[in-house]
UniProtKB/TrEMBL annotation:
It catalyses: tRNA(Arg) + L-arginine + ATP = L-arginyl-tRNA(Arg) + AMP + diphosphate. Monomer. The lineage of its organism: Bacteria, Bacillati, Actinomycetota, Actinomycetes, Kitasatosporales. It comes from Streptomyces toyocaensis. This is Arginine--tRNA ligase. A motif ('HIGH' region) lies at residues 126-136. Gene3D superfamilies: Arginyl tRNA synthetase N-terminal domain, HUPs, Isoleucyl-tRNA Synthetase, Domain 1. Keywords: Aminoacyl-tRNA synthetase, ATP-binding, Cytoplasm, Ligase, Nucleotide-binding, Protein biosynthesis. It comes from the Bacteria. One of its GO terms (cellular component) is cytoplasm. SUPFAM superfamilies: Anticodon-binding domain of a subclass of class I aminoacyl-tRNA synthetases, Arginyl-tRNA synthetase (ArgRS), N-terminal 'additional' domain, Nucleotidylyl transferase. It is found in: Cytoplasm. CDD domains: Anticodon_Ia_Arg, ArgRS_core.
Length: 585
């Protein structure tokens, strides 16, 4: 791997050096470089420096220009406004930097960060015995993209799917299975849809017994105790139930084009044995106290009605444990056993208060500190076209499988309409890639903490900020590259660049910086915005700069080189978002 310093960083280094030479007290000052409409970059950090030095900003800016070297990197610098520096780069520098990126293969010159740590990402948390619905979409899609982005920057990520597989309802389900043996076929004998059908049938039947038969209700409650106590036969049936659910989970995640590793599915049950110790440690440290028989943690700044404190309940008065105990035990496991430096939770924003209390409790206990941090990536709600939470016409929550199937069907219509030389099998394959990509991109192009409307017509549109627009841009480039003949893509730094070539080149060079910023801020929508702008700039370049009919063989090769690097950047960026880029559409 050969990392490439971005043009932005190179300019910043020269500016910082010039600032230091002009004013030694400015050593280490941030030049505050930003993109500009009037030039390639604008530096406005001089205003703050002038204020501290009690100097005239324009005069200080003129001094800085005297210490800036123009030539290989910087072609021109001018002072503008109250003391800004407008900086124009040399065409040669742009082309050379891009050539170095293309030569680096799929990493495109993007370095690995030096201070990489271990991040545990808690995402995609379905519940055993329950169908996945539209509410499960965002956690899965956002979490998967964040893992890819973090891994690409050099962070080591560990996935955790904290599935709901423990609690009162499992006593009811298991007791029913004891009394009605053979109603669940082994997981190895059914597919995902059959598994869910079995689970739904058993759940509804057991719930009917539970609600109508007091004797069964009592037997079910005793079965909960047997489960929590580790009774062998009870655990065996519980395990069959969990395995049956996993078959279904995997079938849905396969439709989402996501890899879910079995060893990363670590549900609430995995922390059962550790919860008593968690409670004991918190009580011994004085972090948790007894109140009305329960073990709780109080917070001065969290209060409810009548200004009464809202506690975090670690252990109930009857000795049972809830979500707080399992979440705190999970933190201990992830910090101590997995040696995580960051805990990232991709969880519905409505659980923000719960995690705020859990994290503060863990900090008081010393499990979280300056070296080990936790973040709740609270995400918003998926809304229907009416702006209300997405429901079926009957008012029920939309099944995730139905939603994905419809997206693929709609995408098939778009692909078939545009397809010229695709077989039916290829159309079906592309429809899955386009449909699932459309769903993912609509989610990821929205800031995670915002709600967004689920509008399939817009999602599969060829126009606007959609994954289909990006996929067609990639496919168009591949079509051009298949027609090159004897001229191969190659960089020619000696050539002057058209303004559309410069704009595209500067944006291509910013890919690594964008990925690092988006990963550090847990903001996949920033990468999505970058990719949309890249496709838009490529469209402008394609319209204004003939590629195969350029003025000279060298210019043809150079423009093919820009096409090639654009395609590779689109492919890598979309892959980080978990979206496919078909070669033909």
């Amino acid at each position: 791997m050969a990392s490439v310093t971005s043009l932005t960083d190179s300019v910043q280094q020269q500016l910082a050096s010039a600032l230091s030479a002009t004013r030694p007290e400015a050593a280490g000052a941030d030049p505050l470089l930003r993109r500009s409409d009037r030039a390639d970059f604008q530096a406005n950090g001089i205003l703050a420096l002038a204020k501290r030095a009690k100097a005239n900003p324009r005069e200080l800016a003129a001094e800085v220009v005297l210490h800036l070297t123009t030539g290989d990197l910087i072609e021109d610098v001018e002072v503008s406004g109250p003391g800004f520096l407008n900086i124009t780069l040399a065409d040669r520098a742009i082309t050379q930097n891009l050539a170095a990126r293309l030569a680096d293969g799929e990493r495109l010159g993007v370095p690995l960060k030096e201070d990489a740590g271990v991040t545990v990402v808690d995402y995609a948390q379905p519940n055993v015995a329950k169908e996945m619905h539209v509410g499960h979409l965002r956690s899965a899609v956002i979490g998967d993209a964040l893992r890819s982005m973090l891994d690409f920057t050099g962070e080591r990520t560990i996935g955790r799917h904290h599935i709901g597989d423990w609690g009162t309802q499992f006593g009811m389900l298991i007791q029913y299975l004891f009394e009605h043996p053979g109603e669940l076929a082994p997981a190895s004998e059914v597919d995902g849809e059959q598994a869910m059908s079995n689970l739904n049938r058993v759940y509804k039947a057991s719930r009917a017994f539970f609600d109508s038969d007091d004797d069964f209700k009592e037997r079910a409650r005793k079965r909960v105790v047997a489960l929590q106590s580790g009774d062998k036969e009870t655990l065996e049936l519980w395990q069959q139930f969990v395995d049956e659910s996993k078959v279904y989970f995997y079938s849905v995640f396969e439709k989402l084009d996501m890899e879910i590793r079995d060893e990363e599915i670590v549900g609430e049950s995995a922390y059962n044995e550790g919860m008593p110790e968690t409670a004991r440690l918190l009580e011994e440290m004085g972090v948790a106290v007894r109140s009305e028989g329960a073990l709780v943690v109080f917070f001065d700044d969290i209060r409810g009605k009548d200004d009464q404190p809202v506690p975090l309940i670690v252990q109930k008065a009857d000795g049972g444990f809830g979500y707080a105990a399992s979440d705190l035990t999970a933190i201990r496991n992830r910090v101590v056993d997995l040696r995580a430096t960051t805990l990232l939770y991709v969880v519905d924003v409505r659980q923000s208060l719960h995690f705020r209390m859990v994290f503060e409790t863990a900090r008081r206990a010393g499990w979280l500190n300056d070296d080990v941090t936790a973040h709740n990536m609270g995400y918003g709600t998926v809304l229907g076209a009416d702006g209300k939470p997405f429901k079926t016409r009957e008012g029920e929550t939309v099944r995730l499988e139905d939603l994905l199937d419809e997206a693929v069907q709609r995408a098939a219509e778009v692909v078939r309409e545009k397809a010229r030389d695709l077989t039916e099998d290829e159309i079906r394959e592309r429809a899955a890639q386009v449909g699932i990509g459309a769903v993912k991109y609509a989610d990821l192009s929205t800031s995670p903490n915002r709600d967004y409307k689920f509008d399939l017509d817009q999602m599969v549109s060829l126009n606007g900020d959609t994954s289909v627009y990006l996929q067609y841009a990639y496919a168009r480039i591949q079509s051009i590259l298949r027609k090159v003949g004897d001229v191969r893509p190659s960089a020619h730094p000696e050539l002057d660049l058209h303004p559309a070539e410069r704009a595209l080149g500067l944006h291509l060079d910013a890919f690594g910086d964008t990925v690092f910023d988006a990963a550090a801020e847990y903001a996949p929508h920033k990468l999505a915005a970058y990719l949309y702008q890249l496709a838009s700039l490529y469209t402008s370049f394609y319209d204004k700069c003939p590629v195969l009919k350029a003025d000279s063989p060298e210019q043809v090769a150079n423009r093919l080189f820009l096409c090639d690097l654009t395609a590779r950047t689109l492919h890598q960026g979309m892959a980080l978002l978990g979206i496919r880029t078909p070669e033909r559409l």
